[in-house]
Write a structure and sequence with these properties.
There is one protein chain. Helices cover 44% and strands 20% of the residues. It has a seven-stranded parallel β-sheet, sandwiched between helices. The chain has a three-stranded mixed β-sheet with strand order 7-10-12. Helix 1 packs across helix 9. The longest helix has 18 residues. The mean pLDDT is 94.
């Protein structure tokens, strides 16, 4: 009988990548029965998964009872949370995201799962010894990871790298003018960025984790395709678009001013985490090299 792999965020980039990869994998597709968790199975995205033979169940990450029910009978779980913002990126709720993550952890423990793959990122405050202390969307995920350890839940942590979608989604994005394109960040032109395509890469790393159990139990895997600089980014944009593209490094406070006031400091420090602490912190090169062998 196939084992159940329950996937949270099933209609999003990360969870969707896991489902697509497992469905298309010659070994994992026969070993695991997929269960997709979504808030509304009646939406087109949920129906599309059901048509592919995926079991689609309803749960709200802030409703613990529904999460527990969704995980019942699972052998393995892929857990990812939604960063909870109000409209316009105004207010991030660390408590809400931690509640989501702890509900997944508690449900996994109640079901006695053999593996919880937790999608996380580094603890910004601890990694920087308090120098960057306005990174709640980093710290919340990392603190859920600490909770998972405390609960003695079998785990592997997948630390997602710098999302490639940030290139266009983080204001001001790629600025276009008659003179060409400009990308303005507060990173040095040669800052190494661990780039991660969530929609394409998450499933590859999760598949590797599933295939390399139990040796990866209790381990940290870093999710990135490699290290790329802002110079690499603009060169790639220029090659694809055929339009002259340049990189402009701006001061931290100028970069902070690109965003709504409530989010400016956090997003500025996110990029400082990349520039000053190599995003993953000490030892990132070695762990990423190992992780790429798993993928």
């Amino acid at each position: 009988m196939s084992k159940i792999l329950t996937v949270f965020g099933a209609t999003g980039n990360q969870g969707g990548s896991v489902i697509a990869t497992v469905l298309g994998h010659p070994k994992l597709s026969s070993e695991y029965k997929l269960r997709a968790v979504t808030r509304d199975p009646s939406k087109a995205s949920g129906k599309a998964l059901a048509e592919k033979g995926v079991e689609v169940v309803k749960a709200d990450l802030l409703d613990k009872a529904s999460v527990v029910k969704a995980v019942e009978g699972s052998h393995a779980v892929f857990g990812v949370t939604n960063s909870v913002f109000t409209t316009d990126w105004e207010i991030f709720s660390k408590d809400a995201e931690m509640t989501q993550g702890r509900n997944i952890a508690d449900a996994s423990k109640a079901a006695g799962v053999s593996l919880l793959i937790w999608s996380t990122i580094p603890h910004g405050t601890k990694t920087t010894n308090g120098k960057l202390s306005h990174l709640p969307h980093f710290d919340s995920k990392a603190e859920v990871g600490e909770y998972i350890r405390e609960q003695n839940i079998p785990f592997t942590f997948l630390h997602a790298g710098f999302f490639m979608t940030n290139i266009s989604n983080i204001p001001p994005g790629i600025q276009k003018s008659d003179a060409g394109n400009t990308l303005a960040w507060n990173l040095n032109p040669d800052t190494k960025i661990p780039m991660f395509d969530a929609a394409a890469d998450t499933g590859k790393f999760v598949a590797g984790i599933l295939l390399h159990q139990p040796e990866l139990l209790g381990k940290d895997i870093y999710g990135a395709t490699g290290w790329y600089t802002p110079t690499d980014v603009v060169n790639a944009i220029e090659e694809v678009s055929g339009t002259k593209t340049t990189y402009q490094q701006v001061p931290d406070k100028t970069f902070q001013g690109f965003f709504p006031e409530a989010m400016g400091e956090e997003l500025m420090e996110t990029f400082m985490m990349v520039r000053d602490y190599a995003y993953f912190g000490p030892g990132g090169d070695e762990i990423l090299d190992m992780s790429l062998k798993v993928r």
